[in-house]
């Protein structure tokens, strides 16, 4: 697993539940001895087992279902100020939430331009009817679909869209997960401000 993902998970747990709990999770999962004082390093590659151990320990200590925790992690990746570069990368996908959904097929390529070592799974979006979509994640790590649900819910709010999302589990093949999306109103309320140009400090 790329260190940036692991570090983001560490930030999520620390920012949401406190630095003390993060250290307890690191100890409980057995990863503390593999990390430095600052935890995961963003540009290193780690064994997937370390990520799974952290998730299992977090779910156990927080007494939260793993899937629910992953959805909250996805929401954090878009809504927290610390993750603004990721929000900007995603928002470049279109001027509306529906436009963004159509751009998901290209997200893997866009992410490689920003970080070539980050291997995202293939995302395929299919339009089932007016405002109804199925998103299939091919070759994703177990539970990644729940992270996507959190990301998409936060982005729908970011764009100001009224949308309903539901994780539909495996599509029948190993490493595939599906999400059903219904966009009821792409301009339901005023979204968060987004400018193409990054504001420079005055």
Q: Could you tell me the radius of gyration in angstroms? A: 17 Å
What global shape is seen? globular
Secondary-structure class: alpha+beta
Mean pLDDT across all amino acids: 86
Explain how this protein is built.
- The chain is α+β, with helices and mostly antiparallel strands and 202 residues long.
- The protein folds into two domains: 3-64; 77-185, H-NOX domain (Alpha-Beta Complex).
- The protein contains eight helices and four strands.
- The protein has helices at residues 3-17, 19-29, 48-62, 66-79, 84-91, 97-102, 107-114, 144-159; strands at residues 122-129, 132-138, 162-170, 176-185.
- A four-stranded antiparallel sheet has the order 1-2-4-3.
- A hairpin with a 2-residue loop joins strand 1 and strand 2.
- The longest helix has 16 residues, at 144-159.
């Amino acid at each position: 697993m790329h260190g940036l993902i692991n570090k983001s998970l560490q930030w999520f747990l620390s920012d949401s539940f406190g630095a003390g709990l993060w250290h307890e999770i690191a100890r409980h999962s057995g990863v503390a001895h593999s990390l430095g004082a600052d935890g995961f390093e963003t540009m290193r590659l780690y064994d997937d087992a370390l990520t799974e151990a952290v998730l299992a320990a977090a779910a156990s200590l927080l007494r939260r279902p793993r899937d629910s925790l992953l959805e909250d992690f996805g929401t954090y990746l878009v809504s927290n100020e610390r993750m603004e570069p990721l929000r900007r990368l995603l928002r470049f996908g279109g001027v509306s939430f529906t436009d963004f959904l159509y751009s998901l097929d290209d997200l893997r390529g866009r992410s490689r331009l920003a970080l070539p070592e980050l291997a995202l799974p293939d995302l395929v979006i299919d339009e089932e009817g007016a405002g109804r979509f199925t998103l299939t994640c091919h070759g994703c790590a177990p539970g990644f679909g729940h992270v996507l649900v959190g990301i998409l819910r936060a982005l729908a709010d970011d764009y100001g869209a009224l949308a309903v999302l539901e994780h539909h589990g495996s599509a029948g093949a190993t490493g595939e997960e599906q999400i059903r999306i219904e966009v009821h109103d792409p301009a339901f309320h005023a979204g968060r401000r987004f400018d193409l140009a990054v504001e420079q400090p005055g």
